[in-house]
Amino acid sequence: MYLPIIQQFNTYAKDNNLDIKINLNYISDLNSTVSVINYEETLESLFRKESDKYDIIFFDNIFTTRFGPYLLNLKGTILDKLIDIYKPGIASKSCVYGEDKWPMNVDFTVLYSNYDYLNKYNITAPKTWEELIKTDIESGTCSLYEFIYTFRKSVDADYPEFPSKEAIDALNMMKKIKNELSLDYEFQCGDDYTFDRFMDGKYVFMKFWFFNLPYMKITPLPGVKEGISGSVIGGHNVGINSFISPEHKEAAIKALEFISSYDIQKQYVLSNGVLSGIPSIYDDEEIFGFYLLWD
Questions:
Q1: What is the rounded CA–CA span in Å between residue 114 and residue 217?
Q2: 3-106+234-290 and 108-219 share one fold
Q3: SS3 letters for 220-250?
Q4: Superfamily for the 108-219 domain
Q5: pLDDT truncated to tens, each residue of the chain (295 aa)?
Q6: 3-106+234-290 placed in CATH 3.40.190.10
Q7: What CA dihedral angle connects 235, 23, 269 and 190, to 10 degrees?
Q8: End-to-end alpha-carbon separation of the chain, Å?
Q9: Which of 1, 107, 261, 266 is in Cβ range 3.0-4.6 Å of 235 for a Cys bridge?
C-alpha cells in the first residue's frame, strides 16, 4: 500500500526538478528467504553495522524503542507546521522516541458484529462485557492489555496497575468470558482463524484490527461499564536512517515531508482505508463520509 505514495512522490520530485527518486524495497515471504516475522532482526542487524543500505525505514510501531537509537532525530529538520498537525493525536505517544520518527498510519482494535445474527437473534452490539456474556454467543480473541484498560475507573483514568482491584476484576472477567462461553479454542487462535471467520461469516461478535468494512457493524470494544472502552494502538511508523550521507538525509527529509503532508495523508486514507495520525483529517467532510459506518 506504500507503492502509490512512493510513485506519487517520484512524479512530484521529477516535476519539481528535485533530482530525487525513491526505490521501494518490500520484504515479504514471497520475495525473501528472511521470515517476515523476523524482519526486525534483519533491520537491527543492518543498523548495528551502521549500514547505509536503506534511507527511509517503514516499520511496525511496536519496534519504536528498538529502532529509535538508529534513526535520525527530526527536530529542526521537519517543518513546524507539519509537526503541529500531528501533535494533538495519538501519534505523539505511539511513535515517539526522542523526535526521530513519524506515523505512517495508526490502527486500533474494534468489535465487529455480524448483521445477519444481530437480526436473527434480535440483539445489539454489547457495550459492556456483561452484556456480551448474556448473549452467550461470541467468537474472537481478547488482548490482555486492552482488556485491563477497559476496567479503568473513568474515561480519563490512568491504566490500572497491578495488583489494583480494577486489574484483578479485568482478569476475572476475562476468565468468566472464556469459561461461560466455552472459548478455550478461540482464545488460543491467531489471525488465520479470524480471517476464516470473516470469510465464512460464522461469528456474531469478533474483535480485530479496524477495517472499513461496510457490511459489518463496527463499535468500540465493550468495557466494565457503558462509556468506557479501550484498545491497543497499532500501525506503522517511518524513520530516516541516521547512518546515511548528508545528501541522502536531505533527500529523505523532503520525501518524508511529502508523504506526511495533510493532502497526501488524506489520499492515503481514502485509497487504502487506513487511519492517519493526523487527528484533524477526520473533520474533513470527505473523510467523515468515508467512515460513516462507524457507530
A1: 7
A2: yes
A3: CCCECCCCCCCCCEEEEEEEEECCCCHHHHH
A4: Periplasmic binding protein-like II (3.40.190.10)
A5: 788 899 999 999 999 999 999 999 876 654 444 444 577 888 889 999 999 999 999 888 888 888 888 998 887 777 677 878 887 777 666 666 555 455 667 888 888 888 888 898 888 889 999 988 887 555 444 578 889 999 999 999 999 988 899 999 999 998 998 888 877 887 777 778 888 888 888 888 888 888 877 678 889 999 999 999 998 888 888 889 999 999 999 999 999 999 999 999 999 888 887 888 888 988 888 887 776 545 5
A6: yes
A7: -40
A8: 26
A9: 107
C-alpha cell at 165: 482491584
Cell 474515561, located at residue: 155
Say if residue 117 is exposed, middle or buried (CB neighbours under 10 Å; 0-12, 13-18, 19+): middle
